[in-house]
Amino acid sequence: MDQDVVSTAQEIRDMKIRGAGRIARAGARAVGTFAKNYTGSDYTDFRKDLDEAMRVLLDSRPTAVSLWNGVQAAARGVNQVDRVDDARELLIRNAEEFVKESEEAVRTIARIGAKRVEDGDVIMTHCNSSVAIGVIAEAHRQGKDIKVFATESRPWRQGILTVNDLAKEGVDTTLIIDSAVRLVMKDVDKVFVGADTITSQGDLVNKIGTSQVAMAAHEARVQFYVCSETYKFSPLSLQGDLVKIEEREISEVVRPGEIPDSVKVYNPVFDVTPSYYIDGIITEVGLISPGSVYDVMQRKFGTELMTE
Ligand code: RUB
Q1: Residue 188's pLDDT is what?
Q2: Which of 74, 97, 209, 281 is 20 to 30 A from 52, alpha carbon to alpha carbon?
Q3: Annotated active-site residue in 165, 196, 203, 279
Q4: pLDDT at 298 exceeding the cut of 90
Q5: Does 166 score more than 70 pLDDT?
């Protein structure tokens, strides 16, 4: 097995590489490196080894649609070639293109999203979304006077990364614990969060607690925006599959011996925010309503999906 594939999968599993965009790029890059490093010349062996490499990568965070889309994008068209050299060339090119386009999408979303930020806005964000942070940082760079409340995001505390990222940009940032969201919401103008997955119905799957933030925003009539590249749209949801919510180890929640063995711990790491709490999804193809996700998906993934 390619060592780069194995170490990338391990880093994703250990959350050293995390966040939907980063894992998608890491997955695509690993497929490209697999192709670069491949020394065999038998096409059947190559396909077998590629399938195995893709499986190892996808298993590292099995519910992540962005990883799935990134890895699939890197392997796109491999069924149309029958020589190892052609396949290697194709995979290397695909991976580079996916990474480049995905980084470009983050910059485009920052430009589009920043237009939604007004001078004097108080913003709330949840977890650590590089895309949402990109929007906030761009608005700040444009000279808009903004303040940000960032949630801690238990149990993994990605909010610590967020406040570090925002502080580096010079943004006026306040860290709050997750349970302070509703209290603080009365002072907030807009919420910007990222996305792990967006379903064909326009529902958002994102870090656990996102739906509570959305409900509090709805109650306080605060606008709730999702910042997401279109490769986080789930083609599987189009075929009726439910998005599986990842559960992680209980050691993320309690230390050994802290609670009796008889007590169970449930640690789901994502939740679902229904589309009717979402005021807009900011994508690289524009600011769209949750109701338009289906149309964008069809344009992006084509009709082959509908019949698969
Ligand atoms: C991270 C998370 C982020 C999205 C979007 O969860 O929920 O909001 O992945 O991130 P985890 P980005 O820490 O469990 O990976 O905008 O960077 O793609």
Answers
A1: 98
A2: 97
A3: 196
A4: no
A5: yes
pTM over 0.85: yes
CA end-to-end span of the chain: 29
Name residues contacting ligand 1 (CB within 6 A): 18-22, 127, 129-131, 158, 194-196, 206-207, 269
* Helix locations, the chain, DSSP H: 3-13, 20-37, 43-59, 65-75, 84-114, 130-141, 158-169, 181-185, 210-219, 235-238, 293-301, 304-307
Closest CA to 228 of 105, 137, 50: 105
User: Of 2, 121, 127, 203, which one is the catalytic site residue?
Assistant: 127
- What secondary structure, in 3-state letters, does 180-191 show? HHHHHHCCCCEE
Q: What are phi and psi of 278, to 5 degrees?
A: -105, 120
Mean pLDDT of 140-156: 98
Nearest in space to 21 (alpha carbons), one of 101, 84, 80 = 101
Q: How far apart are CA 124 and CA 147, in angstroms?
A: 9
